[in-house]
């Protein structure tokens, strides 16, 4: 019996042709966890279908995870709007169930933090919600610390977990 080797996922920068696929991933994962647009989660972002253009701006970067020719996850970093210029935000980290638990979120986050350092950021902020316990554990493991007050003006009003890391 022939056993196929597992296909390894690759991490790469987003391209314009990835826009529909990563928007679909974000919508699927958001629906899975009940992260609805009416509560101000990422699915409400007006630029969700144009992530390549958004993350092509200076100081921004977004990576997608591709497996078997399909985009199955992604995440990025960008300057935190309405805040001090040295603070960036880890953004739009979404992964389909097929690639969860493989260390790809950690790998992507580390790459994003390295990029942020290279761009001159000294702190990285993120927002999430309390029931995404695996994500919170990852962020804590990466050195993010819980903070009480929101930073910037992200518009994600239901993201009650706020974290900050010195880069």
TrEMBL record:
Keyword Cell division recorded: no
Gene3D superfamilies (UniProt xref): 3.40.630.30
Keyword tags: Transferase
Protein name (database record): GNAT family N-acetyltransferase
Lineage: Bacteria, Pseudomonadati, Pseudomonadota, Gammaproteobacteria, Enterobacterales
Name of a matching Pfam family: Acetyltransf_1
Natural source organism: Silvania confinis
Residue ranges annotated for the N-acetyltransferase domain, each copy included: 9-167
Signal peptide span: none
Any one GO molecular function term: N-acetyltransferase activity
InterPro entries named among the record's database cross-references: Acyl_CoA_acyltransferase (IPR016181), GNAT_dom (IPR000182), NAT_camello-type (IPR050769)
SUPFAM superfamilies: Acyl-CoA N-acyltransferases (Nat)
Domain of life: Bacteria
């Amino acid at each position: 019996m022939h056993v196929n080797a597992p296909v390894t996922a690759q991490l790469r920068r987003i391209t314009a042709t990835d826009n529909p696929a990563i928007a679909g991933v974000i919508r699927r994962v958001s629906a899975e966890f009940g992260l609805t647009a009416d509560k101000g989660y990422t699915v409400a972002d007006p630029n969700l279908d144009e992530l390549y253009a958004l993350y092509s701006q200076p100081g921004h970067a977004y990576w997608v995870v591709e497996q078997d020719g399909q985009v199955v996850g992604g995440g990025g970093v960008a300057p935190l709007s309405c805040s001090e210029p040295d603070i960036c935000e880890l953004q739009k980290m979404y992964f389909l169930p097929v690639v969860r638990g493989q260390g790809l979120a950690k790998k992507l986050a580390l790459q994003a933090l390295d990029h942020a350092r290279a761009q001159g950021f000294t702190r990285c902020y993120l927002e999430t919600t309390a029931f995404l316990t695996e994500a919170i554990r990852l962020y804590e493991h990466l050195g993010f610390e819980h903070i009480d007050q929101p930073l910037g003006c992200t518009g994600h009003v239901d993201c009650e977990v706020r974290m900050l890391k010195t880069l």
